[in-house]
Amino acid sequence: MSARSVSPTAPLPAALWLVAFALAAINLRAPIVVVGPVLESIMQTLAIGAGVASLFTTGMILCFGVLSPLAPSVAARLGLDRAIALALGAIALGGLLRGIESLPVMLIGTFFAGLGIAFGNVFMPSLVKRDRPERIGQTMGLYTVVMGIGATLGAGTAVPLMNLSGSWSVPILMWSGIGVATTALWIWMAWRRPKASDDGQSTRITRLFKSRTAWTLTLFMGMQSLGFYTLQTWVPAVASAAGVPSAAAGGMLSIINLTTIPASYVIARLAARLHHHSLLVLGLCTLIALGLVGLWLAPTVSPTLWAILLGAGQGGCFSFALTMIVMRTRRANHAAMLSGMAQSLGYLMAAGGPLVFGALHGVTGDWRLSLWLLMALLSVQTVAGVMIGRPKLVTVREG
């Protein structure tokens, strides 16, 4: 495949493809996090409590788990490019509705945004498998980096934009506008390119249920997501309770998220060059384990170091999981099926992590048992990662 050809069905300039790819990726993270920093203002405007307000974020995670299995069939029916345009359109519509000061309208918007992001999460690895199979490491590295940048920008600009404009709707609507522009670009690309010949083949995720490799990757994805979202929720509280100053405890979360960006890119590039990956994923899980042990036994000694270790390990594991979705499948539609299975069940596993972690603290009065649970689940993730690191492709049951 030439440098300027990105599809076997129709040529497109590589630079244009990469711009469209990056814009799609940034829309898969920023709309999730932009609500959190302005959530208190939303609660005051709508006169709602924290429980109802949590639906704006947890509702999205549930959409990821419940709706992801539908994505491969949508791609089969519409074609991958049109399906991505549809997903981006749903994200843009969801953002528009979430910017309206009405609880029912915002909840409907959360559903549409969650639907679009759930589908987009599934489609993107399949797109890389189809269009850039010879540049998997480079492209998946770009994908994870851009998502990290999108999350950082979404969270970091929300409050300044709200303060500048005087309305919490402005940052949400701004990202909706970016989604509209990205949707228009993908509609144009989909119009240029016909549906690929294999888009409609073997789309039911249930055909993967007899594949041990598919289940192993799903388990790894689930444990990785559970650990990530749990720490995203509770790291500042755990560190503060152990004596870390509140500013430093909050800063740990920022350091974790910033560290995931370079780590995800490096691991995607490295994983694409390797044939065996078991030692790589073992090293990444070891970084997470060291960070957890430091957070538990000596949190005040070097909270920055523990945050860097956690960010590098978690960012690397996330990038590794997405890269394996591409590398462990034979065809683009198989990658979509595996992505749907791993992310659907993975996010369902992850949904209960922060709740259980916090509940154990409520029962025991400290964080030791909660951290022990996280270490135990990390051991499961490590075993699954070592197994998926073996060079074995996913088998798809045909017929």
Please write out the topology.
Blueprint: H1 14-26, H2 30-33, H3 39-46, H4 50-53, H5 55-67, H6 71-78, H7 80-98, H8 103-131, H9 136-165, H10 169-192, H11 212-241, H12 246-273, H13 278-297, H14 303-327, H15 332-351, H16 353-364, H17 368-388
Helix pairs in contact: 1-9, 5-8, 5-15, 6-7, 6-15, 7-8, 7-10, 8-9, 8-14, 8-15, 9-10, 9-12, 9-14, 11-12, 11-14, 11-15, 11-16, 11-17, 12-14, 13-14, 13-17, 16-17
Name the assembly state.
single chain
Percent of sequence in beta strands: under 5%
The radius of gyration is: 20 Å
Named CATH topology of the largest domain:
Growth Hormone, Chain: A
What is the helix content?
Answer: over 70%
Give the domain tally: 2
Query: Helical region count?
Result: 17
CATH classification, class level of the largest domain: Mainly Alpha
CATH architecture label name of the largest domain: Up-down Bundle
Structural class: mainly alpha
The CA-CA distance between the termini, in Å, is 31 Å
Major sheet details: none
What sequence of helices (H) and strands (E) makes up the elements?
Answer: HHHHHHHHHHHHHHHHH
Can you identify the CATH superfamily of the largest domain?
MFS general substrate transporter like domains
Give the integer mean of the pLDDT values. Answer: 87
Give the low-pLDDT segments: 1-10
Q: Write down the overall geometry.
A: globular
